[in-house]
Structures are given as C-alpha cells and as structure tokens.
Design brief:
nine-stranded antiparallel β-sheet, 12% helix
C-alpha cells in the first residue's frame, strides 16, 4: 500500500502448515493442529545501510487461532554482482499460538505420557539469517537463504521439543 524509497507497508496473507500427531512418535496423543491462513500486515523502514521490519499475522482459519509478531533488523553487504543481506530477528507468539504448538493439557498428558505444560505468550524464537542474490540480468536474479532459529522461553522448555535449534536452507 505504501512503497517509497525508505518506507514500505502493506497487507500479508500466508498459509501455515499445521501438525499431525502422526508426524512424530512424541506427538502421539497430542492431537492435530490444523493448517492456518494467517492475515496481517507489515511495515518496513530502510535507512542505508540498515533495514528494519515488523510483520504481524493473525490466524483467520481456526488452525491455531493465535497471532505472531516478527521483528527483524539487518544490513546489506554489497559485492560486485551479488548482494548479501544479514539479519537478526525474533518472533513473539500469542497464548493461543503457544498453547496450540507447545502446551500439553491434562487430557493430552494422559494420552501421551508427557507432563502437563502451560505455554504462555511471549518471545518464541530468535534468529539470524543470510540471504544472497546474484544478478543475472536487470530483471532476473537467483538467490538463496540460510537461517538459524533458536526456540526460547516457553517454546524451548516445552516437553514436546527435542531440539530447540532449527535450520532452514
């Protein structure tokens, strides 16, 4: 909706996969979390060489019924024909989101053997990422992304979580 040199803002709609208790033995007895359509918006501000972004999304499809707010800050590292962007980020998650993915209620505890656990709203993860693009022509670029996310707080402490370290390529 807003697209000028230093400031951008607009709507977001995304699809998020859910979780099936058949996906992993540790999830047996916890029930499924349906996939979700999330809607929201973003604001981005750029003051060379830095870029700041906030993105907020709310489940509109009754999958997890929660909300997420992602914050990130990063900078470009220019090279002759490629661009590398390095960013730090974090995600805040609402009570409903945290309960859907990280909590274990009394019935789930009885069904799964995991201890009862209440996951409350708060910072869910911290991340560091690197995106790179190589300019092929004025209109085409090929790119890639590496990202590390570490679960923190109630998300990391959940009895469902085996490893709080997550990698994305």
């Amino acid at each position: 909706l807003i697209n000028n040199k230093n400031f951008k803002a607009g709507p977001i709609m995304s699809w998020t996969s859910g979780r099936d208790e058949d996906d992993n033995d540790k999830l047996e007895g916890l029930g499924d979390v349906d996939s979700s359509i999330e809607v929201g918006g973003f604001l981005s501000y750029r003051k060379k060489p830095f870029r700041f972004k906030v993105e907020a999304r709310q489940d509109a499809d009754s999958g997890h019924e929660g909300a997420l707010v992602e914050l990130s800050a990063g900078t470009n590292l220019p090279f002759e024909k490629s661009l590398v962007f390095i960013a730090l980020g974090t995600t805040w998650a609402s009570d409903d989101y945290m309960e859907s993915f990280f909590a274990v209620d009394a019935q789930q505890s009885a069904d799964s053997g995991l201890k009862k656990y209440d996951a409350e709203a708060g910072i869910k993860d911290v991340s560091v990422s690197m995106k790179s693009g190589y300019k092929i022509t004025n209109r085409w670029r090929i790119g890639g992304k590496l990202e590390y996310k570490g679960l923190v707080g109630d998300a990391a402490d959940s009895p469902i979580v085996d490893d709080e370290n997550q990698f994305l390529v």
